[in-house]
Please model this.
Amino acid sequence: MPLRQRDPLLPTLAIVALFAALAAWHLGIPSKMYFDEIHYVPAARKMLAHQRANVEHPLLAKEAIAAAIALLGDRPWAWRLPSLLAGILGLFAFARALWWATHRRFATIAGTILLASDFAWFIQSRIAMLDMVMAALAMVALWQVAAALDRPKPRLRLALGGTCIGLAVGAKWSVVPALALLGLAMVATHLLTRARAPFRGVSLAEILFWFASWPLAVYWATFLPGAFWHDAPLPIADIVAWHRAMLALQDSVVAHHPYQSVWYQWIVNWRAIWYLYEPIDGAQRGIVLIGNPFTMLAGLPALLWCLWAALRHRQWQPSAALALYAVSLAMWALSGKPVQFYYHYLLPGTFLMMALALALDALWRTRHPARWLAPATLALSCAVFAWFHPIIAAAALHHGRDSFEHWMWLASWR
Model:
């Protein structure tokens, strides 16, 4: 166990609060649906009318959008509020997971800054899509499991973690490989190290319950509102057949999209998606989804460091970051889904920032003259975020239709 340091809770809260303020600013702009909001906002409206809609995805994230509309009105900032709240919660949960896993102040603060400024977490926190609800719940699950590993009475943490696993899958299936790996790792650790099992006083049967049976029950429960649809209610009793139909619908999308890309392009930040670029709300505005051009590439050698730390020093934290990155990316590399997009890199990119934070922390703890590169990396990540902020936040652009040229470092981003 790493030597404990003082919990950086206050600095973490300050970073999360700054992220929240930036992400909430002008949340209602653009004042119309853009990109995949055209699928999920109408689906939420239909769900409020007890009608079937967007049945190729699980229900939870769409239920969150529907709840926001019901409580706050059918307006743009209300559509996007669930993603915003999820983004804030998920960033905090990511930080707490890093803290409980490492007990290192620099790693925790660095990871929080890196994720807040990686572009994708910010952009997906400001759009009414499913991904941020899924990702945030996954981060809460990781937080609870990491804390349970360190607590003498872990059952409440495991219950919360298992609940969030089920809810995350109930938001979007993309999270399944990462959370399945988490459960398998806990089971394997228990079997291989019975004398020092991962959770104190918790049996293998309980681990299987909290990481398998209970999440499946929670996931199943997220479909219950569909049983009350007036238009072709969801067959809760035959949920397996329903899932076959969902899979068939997802695989049926084969039409070429100008912004589609594949996993090896995501790794090098090669292909962007233009969520928005048009005159709207009194100005030319744009939102381009790419990763932070600096940290997405800086994270790649950090993965190699994680591999070295895992093999040479048997450190489980770098092993976990590397494995989570690999399985969440491998899902898309091996998937038969014919049309994929850069936003599918949201989870792998998050674990990439975890790997980079761990590598920077290791550098910071050395006496090497180059240790200054660790804080310099954080400063440069924030500087690049600030430079690109207008084109990732739908800010008013002051040079007309050609404003986007200012940020087009690669022709493939156009």
Observations:
- The longest strand covers residues 273-280.
